[in-house]
Amino acid sequence: MHEFTLWAPKVEKVSVKVGDLVYPMSGPDDRGSWQATVNEADNGSDYAFLLDDDPTPYPDPRSPWQPGGVQGPSRLYDQNAFSWTDAEWHAPPLASGIIYELHVGTFTPGGTLESAIERLEYLEGLGVTHVELMPVAEFPGDHGWGYDGVDLFAVRQLYGGPDGLKRFVNAAHLRGLAVILDVVYNHFGPVGNYTGKYGPYLTALHWTPWGDAVNFEGAGSDEVRRFFCDNALMWLRDYHVDGLRLDAVHAFVDRSAVHFLEQLSAEVERLSTTLGRKLVLIAESDLNNPILVMAREAHGYGLDAQWSDDFHHALFTVLHNEPGKGYYSDFGSLASLAKALRCVFVYDGAYSRYRRRSHGRPVTGLSAYRFLGFIQNHDQIGNRATGDRLEHIVGMNRTKVAAGLVLTAPFVPLLFEGEEFAASTPFLYFAHHDDPQMAKSVSEGRRREFAAFGWSPDEIPDPEKRETFERSKLDWSEIHEGYHAEMLDWYRKLIHLRHTLPSLNDGDLGHIAVAFDEDHRWLTMGRGLIKVLCNLGNSPAEFENPEHLPLLLASRNGVQMIEDKVLLPPDALAILSGETP
């Protein structure tokens, strides 16, 4: 027996089809919900909904399982049937975290959650504390990034389905690794999204890069907000996930008295208290607005952390002069990097030439651990024309410098799969659509996007070809070879220092001292008893060392300690320390 419930205020008649049998649903109630109790339905039963006189069966917007893909029927799934063995699990604090972002399909040759389990021991040995999965909600096609999901409650079948995700999370917890899941609440994918047939999930009153905005504030928005809150709570409660990364929250349009993010953070906090384990919410936002991570008691939204794009942009542009510029045109100086290290946001009310307006507001009274710092992630690699990684662009020495700054900066570090061993494989943009017109549109749109920056069409990998997806898979055979092994050793040493040196575990932005020389291209960062020296110039740089701090770690050979001075070769980073790891 199963009781079906469906919010469908747009229709006048609803039936649920279970197997080959059809059962009328009663309703709607005053909010547009329909109900039916079906004795013949049980866990494992396939079902779909029939709307008005349309003979087409449509999947459940809250489908827990789509074994036949986004166009197939939904399947009932018992969330309580899985045998968990992580009862004593508690996630490490985010403040002491090393986050590792991965794409399930490209992380291993098998491209499944089951095969990803085989690499958890490696991540544990690297010093990772949190594994962040790019979206796993069901999306169309044989391969894709997952940001075009349409069945947000269903784990992608090709990744292993609902049991596959539970096995992965359980195995991660047994290794001492927390799991963060990337979720997309700013739009639905264009293929297989039938929510518009049921109710006003989207609104034409606001526009986003993906089309109509999610309806967080108009008529019917109570149920839409409930849909997304329930989705978040399901991952945290039923799948034992430790946190969510909320994609592009700057695309949310919500002028309600209680913003959706504030509602979500309050509900997650209640669940966290009920479960007795810490749950976290991390936002991606380009608004440069600390309100996201301010406490609700201080009239903020109460999220735990947000990505810091300004730090990435400031660091990347002192390593590489990007042709075409785009948003990088606002950066490029060591002054910007120094400000990002001290203040988080470079644009904290300052005028942005790229945006042609003032942007952001200052971060005041907040820990640096409210922000994630990175030099590589899926966007910053995959949204490049050829998916080239940092080492492909700036070389080994500068990539080591970048890693050193990310892992000694005050922010919570985030790494992207393969960066720790300078993976030779790119991470390309890839998607797959059965509809030839949609596939053509995606491929041509990608070529047009980069034609404006001088790329010829034949230089842009076709996202619709399986070869593009296959080329993005990590090659694990190279991690013990040559410069790959050298980079992996560098990352391991940096992460070890991050975990063991008290001065690198101080989130007080007021305790950071930064100095730089724009002409000679050097920068220093002081964090307590730790001093980080960075030379991006063409000549050796000389630094004062009156405290006679010993050299703890250097990114390349040739560092000279001469009495109370340090001589650093070009494209090098050194860490001096009065602390012993």
Describe the 3D structure.
Helix content is about 25%, strand content about 20%. By secondary structure, the chain is an alpha/beta fold. Among the domains are: about 1-60, Immunoglobulins (Immunoglobulin-like, Sandwich), CATH 2.60.40.10; about 510-575, Immunoglobulin-like. The strands form 8 sheets. An 8-stranded parallel barrel has the order 7-8-11-14-15-16-19-20. The chain has a 5-stranded antiparallel sheet with strand order 21-22-23-28-25, covered by helices on one side. A 4-stranded antiparallel sheet has the order 3-2-5-6, with no helix packed on it. Helix 6 packs parallel to helix 7, helix 8 (about 310-320) packs antiparallel against helix 9 and helix 11 (about 390-410) packs parallel to helix 14. The model has no long low-confidence stretch (mean pLDDT about 95).
